[in-house]
Structures are given as C-alpha cells and as structure tokens.
Specification:
Layout: E1 6-12, H1 19-27, E2 34-40, H2 47-57, E3 61-65, H3 74-84, E4 89-92, E5 98-99, H4 103-111, E6 118-127, E7 134-136, H5 149-159, E8 170-171, H6 172-178, H7 189-199, E9 203-215, H8 228-249, H9 255-271, H10 273-278, H11 284-311
Parallel strand pairs: 1-2, 1-4, 2-3, 6-9
Antiparallel strand pairs: 4-8, 5-9, 6-7
Helix pairs in contact: 5-9, 7-8, 8-9
C-alpha cells in the first residue's frame, strides 16, 4: 500500500517529565512511514537528554535546538518544523499529548483516495496521567464528516465544538496554500491557524476508530488573559478570522463568528473593559445584546417591586 511520509512536528520546552510518553505514542504508531521533528526552545531541564535517548534508538526522530536568533514561542517552532518537514502530510503534536497507536493509520486510510485539500479529524479525550486513566468524549455534535468547511462552521455556530491541534491530519500542500502559523499572535494562534486550514479545505473526514489525548493542567497557559497584550492578541486573532470569514462567505451576521466574539466579549467585560470601549465597532452586536439583557433585568426588577408593593409579598 502507498504510504506517503508523515511529518510529526513537536515544539518542546522544559518537558523532561512528560515528553517521553509523547514520543512513545509516536513510536507506537501502526503507520510506520513518519519522521518526527522536535524543535526545542533551548530547554533548561533534561528535555534534550530525554529526546536524544529516543533519537539514538530511532533515526526517524530529528531534534532541532532552535537557534538563539529565533524568538521563543511554539508558533515560531512549528514554522521552523514546517520548513524542515519532508512529508506529504503533517501531524502537529504538543510535547505532553498522546496519539492513539492507530491514529495516523486510520486517518491516512481516509485521506489516501482524496484530494490534498481534504483533512481528517477523529475523537479526542482528556487525561491527567496515563496511570489515572483517560476520558474520551463520545457523541459530540462535531463527530461527523463535513462536505465543506461552511457546513462545519455552521454546526459550531449552533452547537459549539472544539478539536485540539493534534486531532487533525493535514497535507503539506494545504498548509502551504492556507499559510504558516501567525508568529505575531501570542494567544489563539492555534485557533487562527486552524481556522485558515478549515476555511481552505474541500471536505472534512471523521474517523470514529481512533482518538487523541489532551493532557490537563500541563500546557503552558498562554491562553490565560493575564495581561492586556495577550488580550489584544486574542482580539487581533478574531479580527483576522472575521475578515477572512466575510471575504470567503459574504456573511456579516454569522452564528459562528458571533458566538466566538461573544465569548471574547464576556472575557474582556470582566478584565479589560477598556479594550471593548476602544473596539465598539467590532463588538457592536455583543454590546447591543448586553444592553438589551441589562434592560430586561431592570424591567424584571421593577415588576417584582411593583408586585411586592401591590400584594405585600
């Protein structure tokens, strides 16, 4: 059977206690034609030694220590990995997550007869440690194939949904067309990248025969909005996404975009209201809905007070 090369790209930084399990899940893949490119961000613990121990036993592992001329950051590391990757397909994988042993094989079985603009997804779950057991999500609304990307976005707009980055298997050709990771973003860089991938895909194929695992409480919390610069990066990512969505589909009142913008608005309302006031045009719909909710709350309060005065309870 034809087995195109799959490039597995792993950014790493100070994960000596976790990266071994991730690399074991790579070694255990039933699909054997892969290379694993690990871009290390100059770890200060024993991460490099752990990776070297795998590289010495299997030459499909390739450790690249990021040159000091490059800035730190996972997006920069992934782009460096993409430049080195020789595979026809790309599997992104964080240095603490896990692939089921048949993950690549099952998804490649779906993709081999399709165009390079088709992507594959699968089930996913969470875990703390493998010894404690795993929890696989079942029956999710987005556990299905999609004939086009718009169909996927419409479903997410109605029901919500999320896939971690290692869920996808993507052709290098599609990545080259959609564009590499946006290195200017420090928050939601993965959301913006995979939006562009999904936007440019022809169809999405789902495999119910495999899954990936996302480790709880170990990822660097880059998505936590603990600074205004991170909040601004999140805002910028969604400005990019909205412009691309409108350009592609011509929809300015999308359930998908409005649902996502509402989540961002609610985050900012608590911590960064100044950003909302500076971006009223972007949050126009959310401000309108918020004002209506406030009016309804005041009306209900007046009605309760009137009933209390009239009837004494």
């Amino acid at each position: 059977m034809n087995q195109p090369l799959v490039s597995i790209i792993i950014p790493s930084f100070n994960r000596a206690h976790l990266v071994g399990e991730t690399l074991i899940s790579v070694i255990n893949q039933t699909y054997k034609n892969w290379e694993c490119i690990i871009i290390d961000d100059n770890s200060t613990d024993e991460t490099i030694e752990v990776i070297n121990s795998f590289q010495e036993k299997d030459n499909r592992f390739k450790l690249i220590i990021k040159p000091k001329a490059y800035k730190q950051g996972a997006s920069i590391s992934k782009n460096l990995g993409l430049k080195i990757a020789a595979g026809d397909y790309v599997q992104f994988l964080d240095s603490d997550d896990i692939l089921k042993e048949n993950k690549i094989e099952q998804q490649m079985n779906l993709l081999l007869q399709e165009s390079k603009r088709t992507i594959a997804i699968c089930k996913w779950g969470r875990f703390n440690t493998l010894d404690e057991g795993i929890s696989i999500y079942e029956g999710k609304d987005d556990y299905r194939s999609f004939d086009n990307s718009k169909e996927y976005f419409d479903l997410i707009g109605l029901h919500g949904g999320f896939f971690p980055c290692h869920n996808f298997l993507i052709s290098k050709e599609l990545i080259n067309f959609a564009g590499y990771w946006n290195e200017s973003l420090t928050v939601n860089d993965d959301g913006e990248f995979f939006f562009r991938i999904l936007l440019n895909t022809e169809n999405i194929l789902f495999s119910d025969k495999t899954y990936v695992l996302y480790r709880n409480n170990s990822h660097d919390n880059l998505s936590v909005l603990n600074s205004e610069s991170k909040a601004t990066s999140l805002l910028n990512s969604w400005k990019i996404i909205e412009v691309l969505f409108i350009t592609k589909y011509g929809e300015r009142d999308s359930l998908y975009i409005n649902k996502k913008k509402s989540s961002v608005y609610n985050e900012f309302k608590r911590a960064y209201p100044r950003i909302i006031s500076q971006n009223k045009d972007f949050f126009k719909q959310q401000i309108k809905e918020d004002t209506l909710v406030k009016k309804m709350i005041k009306l209900k309060k007046r009605i309760r007070n009137r009933i209390k005065k009239t009837f004494g309870f």
